[in-house]
Specification:
The complex is a heterodimer. Helices cover 42% and strands 17% of the residues of chain A. Chain A is of the alpha/beta class. The chains are: A alpha/beta, B alpha/beta. At the A-B interface, β8, α11, α14 and α15 of A face α1, β2, α2 and α3 of B. The complex binds thiamine diphosphate (TPP) and iron/sulfur cluster (SF4) (2 copies). One iron/sulfur cluster binds next to α21 of chain A.
Chain lengths: 631, 197
């Protein structure tokens, strides 16, 4: 099992996910403090560390958001720990404020930021190339290309961080984080530190006079990296062809290797693989440019290397043909065919396979298949909340309204029949944008936000809505955990990442504490009662012109089923009494639990799918849905 | 070798595709290859599509399979097997579980198994069908369908992996208390393909 391999002996060949390999590398480096907020594709780094934290005696936490996670890691570094913060690309937007200061101050124990990009937006609201933050913040960047390098570079990152007195970024991407491959394990570190902070305000306190000195110092520290990167072994040249020079890094590298093999051009190509992509080794790149006839830069997302290399070529007076984003698309993730096509094009060859033909045949054979889009699980409490919310609004005579949604499973409320996501930007934006809408136009506004997201970035926006007084209905969908990223606990769960019991923050209490005067809490699965709670809040908002909070408290059904399984309890089951069912389709068309479908002209509940939440009993106008025994 | 061994495993969330992919990947490494596996799957919700890509070669391969380049498709569900048509060429071995799981969407027309199978046969000469879910149910429950498919794969001999190494990889990956029932599934899968050729 992976956990066993994570602590495997030196020399062993393990089969690890890139993210797990990063965790192993950190353990080999003697990292003793890790903080993170979950986010695909970065989550497994911390989950791997959690699985061994007690055994190896390190601190691992889910923080309330990425900014706090990064700050916690900064502080642990100040105290002498080798410390790590882990996040997805958009998490770095949230952490960018402390990130920008962290290079000014530098480190005590090695400080490593692991950030995972999600090109193609498999589970994100945008694509971002985190390397641009490294450029902006004068933070060196390592880009592993395989699980082995994930381990090796994670370890190296701590050493470089201490050597240069700078934080170091390890930049991952979906196909590095989520690729499993062989990893030859190294020696686990036994380094454990007590943690001791030595006062040095001239290093750590960025008042302007200090910050000005640290800015100069930062440029000097970074210059030293720029000098020494010329000799760094992880920047390596393969092959000795002269027709084409390929410069590449990270996730793009194996695609390049493969394309060269498929096109059978090994003797014509020379590859410069950069392990560190910021700063660039200026002299080594100049020599490389001179050694080949033309150059192709292959990288995922933005032309980060390409721009730097073109600047070098210009400044060194090297008139070279340099290709990059003209041949390798800037949007979405790389694929073998994208890279093979680019290499074929620049070499004047035909791709080894007619990819387009296969795409065509493929779509003629499978194009009309029914899709299988993500839907909220059968029994998801969010569905009941949506159903109750829409009914409550109708009952209160609110014909048209605006639903400002947020990031989490409930974003699926975007789709019919709910259509409760008129806008969706970033975590916490449901309330910030909902507030702005309530202030800037006349229609009724409801903000829909999850529990983890509420703690992450919802709080300041609630404060603003109270302070600047907006008629805003805030629905917090509290399913006890961070569901979308795989059920991580958060401040409202009552347990820490490593399973210790801790204070459970009540969202209702927190809202009252923030000054919201109308706060109610209920169980959305009891749809009718819950709908009445919402109606009360709607009336309050309209009459008083102030924000109200409604907390829907009911566990994520996947989490609940797991709990029941542990207790050995079988979930309930509901069924349709055919004689009572009039075939009105309300349960299928408006409630839309995937366990319910029409069989002929009667509704039918699939016992394989039903999780026994019972919410649909309220949706049926004829009381045709009842609890039945599980066979 | 120039062209890497390219494998795709597809199905629906909950069918144990990632475990199956990990075991195949481990067995490839034990057989001396550099193997990589990656998956594309939906969010936390149940019932989404899961596709796992596995590649192996004697060099640092990328984890993704290109269109038309699959050597082997292992399909745990027929709709999701046909959805991979773009990766299939005439020589691709398609090993599919004869099972349709209708998408949980109201009002969709679910194609029948016969139609799906004939579509597969249109793109590949080498389609092998196994009643893996039914076999798994007979032994223990559908949870072990993935290991019936692993056994079928071993029985077909579609990959340069010995039976022993598949089993070694199973031991490495599966919890001890479930090994026995999973071995039964494996053996049943092996047997199921023996009468296919
Ligand atoms: C800044 C940022 N960090 C992390 C994520 C990844 N992410 C997407 S949804 C989500 C949390 C959802 O949890 P919750 O609000 O409780 O809703 P649920 O999924 O449980 O319904 C996270 C962490 C993100 N999109 N943006
Ligand atoms: S994972 Fe949980 S919160 Fe997400 S859709 Fe399923 S039941 Fe709902
Ligand atoms: S009780 Fe009704 S709403 Fe709940 S899971 Fe079963 S069919 Fe779906």
């Amino acid at each position: 099992m992976t956990r066993r391999e994570l602590l495997g002996e030196a020399g062993q060949l393990a089969f690890l996910l890139g993210n797990e390999a990063v965790a192993r590398g950190a353990l080999e480096a003697g990292m003793t403090f890790a903080a993170a907020y979950p986010g695909t594709p970065s989550t497994e780094v911390i989950e791997a560390l959690i699985s061994v934290s007690r055994e190896v005696g390190i601190h691992v936490e889910w923080s309330s958001n990425e900014k706090v996670a990064y700050e916690a890691a900064v502080a642990a570094s100040m105290s002498g720990h080798r410390a790590m913060a882990v996040m997805k690309h958009v998490g770095l937007n949230v952490a960018s404020d402390p990130f920008m200061s962290s290079a000014y101050a530098g480190v005590n124990g090695g400080l490593v930021l692991v950030v995972a990009d999600d090109p193609s937006m498999h589970s994100s609201q945008n694509e971002q190339d985190s390397r641009i933050y490294g450029l902006h913040g004068y933070v060196p960047i390592l880009e592993p290309s395989s699980p082995q390098e994930c381990k090796d570079y994670a370890k190296l990152a701590f050493e470089l961080s201490e050597r240069y007195d700078l934080p170091v970024m390890v930049r991952l991407a979906t196909r590095v984080s989520h690729a499993r491959g062989p990893v030859r394990l190294g020696v686990l570190s036994r380094r454990r530190v007590e943690g001791k902070f030595l006062k040095d305000p001239n290093k750590w306190s960025m008042i302007p006079s200090v910050a000005r000195r640290r800015r100069i110092s930062l440029l000097e520290r970074f210059r030293r990296v720029s000098e020494e990167v010329e000799e760094l072994e992880i920047n390596a040249i393969f092959g000795d062809g002269v027709k084409l020079g390929v410069i590449t890094a990270g996730v793009a590298y194996p695609y390049v290797v493969e394309a060269i093999k498929l096109l059978d051009i090994e003797d014509k190509v020379r590859v410069f693989k950069l392990g560190m992509t910021h700063p660039l080794p200026r002299r080594a790149i100049s020599r490389f440019l001179e050694s080949v006839e033309r150059v192709l830069v292959v990288e995922e997302l933005e032309p980060f290397l390409e721009t730097g290399i073109k600047v070098i070529a210009f400044e060194e007076g090297l008139a070279k043909e340099i290709h990059g984003k003209d041949l390798v698309p800037v949007h979405f993730e790389l694929t073998p065919e994208r890279v093979t096509r680019a290499l074929a094009m620049v070499m004047g060859l035909k791709p080894p396979v007619d990819y387009d033909r296969y795409e065509e045949v493929g779509s003629s054979v499978s194009g009309d298949l029914p899709p299988r889009p993500p839907v909220m699980c059968p029994g998801c409490p969010h569905r009941a909340s949506f159903f109750a919310l829409k009914r409550a609004l109708r009952r209160e005579g609110v014909r048209s309204f605006i639903a400002s949604s947020d990031i989490g499973c409930y974003a699926l409320g975007f789709f019919p029949p709910y259509e409760l996501a008129d806008m969706l930007y970033d975590m916490g934006s449901s309330i910030g944008i909902g507030y702005g809408l309530a202030k800037s136009q006349k229609e009724f506004v409801v903000s829909i936000i999850g529990d983890s997201t509420f703690f992450h970035a919802g709080l300041p926006a609630v404060v603003n809505a109270v302070y600047n007084r907006a008629p805003l209905l805030i629905m917090v969908l509290d399913n006890y955990i961070t569901a979308m990223t795989g059920q991580q606990p958060h401040p409202g769960t009552g347990v820490t990442a490593t399973g210790e019991e801790t204070k459970r923050l009540s969202i209702a209490d927190v809202s009252r504490g923030l000054g919201v005067e109308y706060v109610v809490e209920g169980d959305p699965l009891k749809v009718v009662e819950f709908q009445k709670l919402i109606q009360g809040a709607i009336r309050y908002v309209r009459e008083q012109g102030k924000p109200a909070v409604v907390v829907a408290r009911s566990p994520c059904v996947l989490y609940e089923l797991r709990r029941l399984r542990r207790l050995g309890v079988r979930p309930k089951l509901y069924g349709v009494i055919p004689e009572e069912c009039t075939g009105c389709r309300v349960c299928v068309d408006h409630f839309a639990c995937p366990a319910i479908s029409m069989v002929g002209d009667k509704a039918f509940i699939d016992p394989e799918l039903c999780t026994g939440c019972g919410a649909c009993t309220y949706a049926c106008p004829f009381n045709a849905i009842v609890e039945v025994p599980r066979p | 070798m120039r062209k890497p061994i390219s494998i795709l495993i597809s199905g629906v969330g909950g069918q144990g595709i990632l475990t199956l992919a990990e075991i195949v990947g481990r067995a490839l490494i034990k057989s001396g290859y550099v193997a990589k596996a990656t998956e594309v799957h939906g969010l936390a919700q149940r019932g989404g599509v899961v596709v796992s890509h596995i590649k192996a070669a004697n060099y640092e391969v990328s984890p993704m399979v290109a269109p038309g380049m699959a050597d082997l498709i292992i399909g745990l569900e027929l709709i999701e097997t046909v959805r991979l048509a773009r990766y299939i060429n005439k020589e691709t071995v398609v090993l599919a579980n004869k099972k349709v799981i209708p998408p949980v969407l109201p009002g969709v027309d679910v194609p029948d198994p016969g139609e799906l199978i004939s579509r597969l046969k249109r793109v590949s000469h080498r389609v092998y069908l196994v009643e893996a879910s039914a076999i798994a149910r007979r032994i223990y429950g559908e949870q072990i369908t993935n290991m019936v498919m692993l056994g079928a794969l071993s029985g077909l001999g579609a990959l340069p992996i010995s039976r022993e190494l598949y089993i070694e990889a199973m031991y490495e990956r599966l919890p001890e208390k479930y090994i026995e029932v999973n071995l039964k599934a494996f053996e049943a899968g092996e047997k199921a393909v023996k009468n296919l050729y």
